Amino acid sequence: MFKALLISRFQAIFYSMFLSKRENKTSGTGKKILIGLLAVYVIGAIAALMGLMFYGLSPLIPLEGGWLYFALAATVAFVLCFVGSVFITQSQLFEATDNELLLSMPIPPSMILASRVLVLLIINLVYELIVLIPAMVVYGIVAPLTGNQILLFIVSALIFPLLIMAVTCLFSYLSALLLSRVKRRNLIQIGLYFLFFFAYLYVYMNLQNYLTRLVENGEVIADAYRKALPPFYYFGKGVSGSWPDALWMVLWSVVPAALAMLLLSRGFAAVTLKKTGEKRSVYKRGALKVSSPRWALMKREIGRYFAIPIYFFNCGLGIVMKVILGAVLLLKGKEWLPLLESIPFVEGALAPLLALVLCFCCTMECLTAPSISLEGKNLWIIKSAPVSEKTFLLAKLDGAMVLGIPSLVFAWACSFVIPMGLYERIIALLLSAAVLLCLNIFGLLMNLCFPRMDWVSEVIVVKQSGSVIAAVFGGMGLVIALAGGYFLFSGIPDAVYMTGALAVTLLLAAGLWLLTLKEGKKRYTAL
Q: Which of 290, 293, 385, 425 has the least CB density, counted as fewest CB within 10 Å?
């Protein structure tokens, strides 16, 4: 049974990437090659960034026999794995749609849990190796590597993810247990997502300062690792060549993992099946409100954005970015104005710069890309209702625009602290709104072309579907094309170019909408 559960988890991952639900057959070789190349590019880019970071830490290699360098590498791997998988862990363990079905069968909850934890362990191993392999390569460039160190590195790299998995699962378990007892759990989850994201962004923006401090205060940090962070201390000592310390690292990884599995196996079913702390609404007799189908579906879409935290965080990040942009303009706009005007290609081009920044924020906000797939197995309810395909698609587009436009207008209004012509300012707003409209229409079209309906977790749709990837890269391509055209036609006045860009973007949006309506009927019927 465990083997069947494990195979089903890997099949779900394979299905999310390569199987076409509409045609019920595996995708062609071209799509597989494209996904493979994209994965290689992303992994290579992250590994290169890690290599540059560890090269900055290379002065620590001669210090303390090199163990502090490897302890810091383990710390970076732990943080990356935790941030990258903590919410995926919660979604896969406690919020998967097949939890109740599996728990209703004569299958021990511990077996269901173990099959999912093993998949998460493999994901953490991949994250960890993306960090540790560049660290080992940099170490080998600076200092000679021995065969003993390489063997200890392999053992430590394979065992250390157990500790990461234990901490991640325990945090997810406690979060799920807490959220099952409180009201407004979805809003709390969205807040936690953004808290983690901005904490990560803050650390990344100050990374160079932290690296400098680490190099300057190596001895103090080494003493702190010895006293307060024994797993990372033993990891560093082990990889630097000490087998006894490596055995201590194994104990610090295996024992917490075993305790975590014991705790989770006992509370998995209770947390998974526990109802939330929110009270059910009590029906009160009164006049019923009547809405048009389009209006009712639009309100339903807006509710879904806030009902699925991972959806709002991944596809609605641009909304938060525009709000932050507006706040930054209000607080720092006048202070940064002399600095902006001192940049050669920015001087006298504040309106195009404002439009570019707003358009970039819009590329982080394609809410329509997974919206059809998120209907999942309940799509038949809408298809059985007297609602046309056009109304269905318009409702999803309306919901995305209703959420995106207010934050766009707020950021634009805050830009009044920066002096620019009124016409150029208005065109900047209209151009960014046209880009937002174009991207949301493109997201709908891509979701019709690459639907993913038979999912067990929203994470598969939001993070792994082809429609989301296509929408993100398509939006970036549009913004890059608009920016490139500005430099290509640098002799044209800014107001003229922005007006032309607005006209082209609106024509592109109109063409995409006509194509969406044309393809929508047959593809919607085939879903």
A: 290
> How far is 366 from 436, CA to CA, in rounded Å?
8
Task: For residues 114 and 239, state if they share a domain.
Answer: yes
Buried/exposed 431-460: b ≥16 CB within 10 Å, e otherwise? bbbbbbbbbbbbbbbbbbebbbbebbbbbb
Q: Are residues 191 and 93 in the same domain?
A: yes
pLDDT in tens, the chain (527 residues): 666 666 666 666 555 544 544 444 555 566 667 666 767 777 787 788 888 888 888 887 877 667 888 888 898 888 888 877 776 777 677 766 666 677 777 777 777 777 888 888 888 888 889 989 999 999 988 888 888 889 999 999 999 999 988 888 888 777 777 766 666 666 676 777 677 667 766 766 665 666 666 666 766 777 777 778 888 889 988 888 888 989 999 999 999 999 988 888 777 766 666 654 445 556 566 666 777 888 888 888 888 887 777 787 778 888 888 988 888 888 887 777 777 666 666 666 788 888 999 999 998 888 898 888 888 888 888 888 888 888 889 999 999 999 999 999 999 999 888 888 889 889 999 999 999 999 999 999 988 888 877 776 777 788 767 788 888 888 888 999 998 888 888 778 888 999 999 999 999 999 999 999 888 777 887 77
Q: Is residue 286 part of a domain?
A: no
Q: Which domain holds residue 82?
A: 27-273
Backbone conformation region of residue 376, classed left if phi is above 0, alpha if psi is from -120 to 50, else beta: left
